[in-house]
């Protein structure tokens, strides 16, 4: 009886210990995905302002302002969904990494000026979080893991 009680009391700690890296990955996925999701929703909900900014403020190389606005908005809405559920998580992280880099490049004339240091730091932090998902995958708390487990495949997921 005492062993059973001890087992039940320590079970949550054992589960958390076994899943700690996966919990960390899911928290990172949600945090960084939410940052881009908010930006995508803002662009979508104020489309005229978005087009104006892409035409006059953002300096996206090689793309027309309209195409850059569409691709940026789609990327900021699609890739976070992939991270949230962990479906093609590495691809979602790679896609958001591209969006992140393009955002820094296209707005470098502002974010690298004095007073905007925290903005650059945010992009570094998001980039490192996305790199962790690309390297380690989305973790066991993801659809990728469940699909591969169902298929009988081993990592990488």
Count of discrete domains:
1
Q: Got a strand count?
A: 0
Name the shape in a single word.
elongated
Radius of gyration: 20 Å
Catalogue the unreliable spans: none
Number of helices: 7
State the major sheet. Answer: none
Mean pLDDT: 90
Helical residue percent? over 70%
Q: Report the portion of residues in β strands.
A: under 5%
Alpha-beta content class:
mainly alpha
N-to-C CA distance: 40 Å
The SSE order reads HHHHHHH
For this entry, give a set of tags.
157 residues; mainly alpha; 7 helices
Structure report:
By secondary structure, the chain is mostly helical. The chain has one domain. 80% of the residues lie in helices and 0% in strands. The chain is built from 7 helices and no strands. The longest helix is centred in the N-terminal third of the chain and has 44 residues. The mean pLDDT is 90.
In a nutshell, what does this entry contain?
Helix content is 80%, strand content 0%. The chain has 157 residues and is mostly helical. The protein has one domain.
List the helices and strands and how they pair.
Elements: H1 2-45, H2 47-56, H3 65-85, H4 89-106, H5 108-111, H6 117-136, H7 143-151
Helix pairs in contact: 1-3, 1-6, 2-3, 3-4, 4-6
């Amino acid at each position: 009886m005492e062993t059973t009680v001890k087992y039940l009391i320590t079970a949550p700690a054992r589960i958390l210990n076994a899943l700690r890296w996966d919990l960390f990955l899911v928290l990172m996925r949600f945090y960084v995905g939410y940052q881009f999701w908010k930006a995508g929703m803002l662009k979508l909900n104020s489309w005229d302002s978005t087009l104006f900014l892409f035409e006059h403020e953002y300096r996206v190389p090689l793309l027309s302002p309209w195409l850059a606005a569409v691709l940026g908005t789609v990327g900021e809405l699609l890739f976070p969904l992939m991270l949230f559920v962990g479906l093609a998580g590495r691809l979602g992280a790679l896609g958001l990494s591209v969006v992140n880099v393009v955002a820094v490049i296209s707005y470098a004339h502002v974010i690298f000026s004095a007073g905007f240091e925290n903005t650059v730091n945010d992009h570094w932090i998001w980039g490192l979080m996305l790199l962790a998902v690309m390297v380690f995958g989305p973790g066991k708390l993801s659809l990728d893991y469940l699909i591969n487990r169902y298929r009988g495949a081993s990592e990488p997921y």
